[in-house]
């Protein structure tokens, strides 16, 4: 279990490498799924085109959506897009950068599926077999076949076990012709995808590199901030539950503690240290309503990205503290400090 925990922590800390690995696995899975997929053309004029184009386009759409589902940044992007502005404005360039990054990774598996499908040529043959020119691959006559019968004969070209029109058209020649066209389209598709990726890589440095670095930095910051907030909430929830359970048992078993006598000084010191550490982890939030307000304020009014000194965070000179509640700013009067006077006696 320790090895799996260390691996999971490593993947969390290297999310970009993890997502690249997921995209590679999906690409290999798409190729493996196609190799194990049994292609069965219906060999009917009414369904050939729909089945062939469906096999070519529907699985890539599913892989594309699956890439969005498996990407953890989708929820972060939606949260950043829908959150109220509060004290922190939203940068559209960061949202575009995050969306483009998710889209690029999600397009890898669909591109592999389309490429493999076109190279194989079965779906292309099934979809466009009825559009063949009989005069080009036949013997010059249709042997008195009507238009409907000829369409049904052409639709049977992908199915060699039921094709019975060798006298009208050469099935092998027609199949080779369509497969060659499919492979040509596949190579053109690969060339266009590679050219597009090259253009994205080559054109990006031509723009302002500082703007790109700024966008990349703040997108990473949003991701890290979300992770650390979740970790802090988890740690606070564990400490809150621990202190709540301890107080419950201490209140119930108070008589038993008095019966067994006092603990020694060493145990009491250790317990005091543990209590102090627990108090530090609670961060001063010890009530359910207070924690609900903290979580609500974090969503509706995230703090501004302007770090200040600890003295400035406690309030201004007049004793006012700004608290963002439910989308508006509310000023509360901080308790005034009482003056202290020291008296010294000469006796």
Provide an overview of this structure.
By secondary structure, this protein is mostly helical. It has three domains: 2-206, no CATH class; 230-286, no CATH class; 287-304 and 317-334, no CATH class. The protein is 67% helix and 3% strand. The protein contains 15 helices and two strands. It has helices at 2-13, 15-36, 48-70, 73-82, 92-106, 108-120, 122-128, 134-137, 147-155, 171-203, 209-252, 254-260, 265-282, 288-300, 310-313, and strands at 320-325, 328-333. It has a two-stranded antiparallel sheet. Strand 1 and strand 2 (328-333) form a beta hairpin. Helix 2 (15-36) packs parallel to helix 6 (108-120), helix 3 crosses helix 7 (122-128) and helix 5 (92-106) crosses helix 11 (209-252). The longest helix has 44 residues, at 209-252. The model is unreliable at 312-321, 326-335 and 340-347 (pLDDT under 50). Keywords: Ion channel, Ion transport, Membrane, Transmembrane, Transmembrane helix, Transport. It is found in: Membrane.
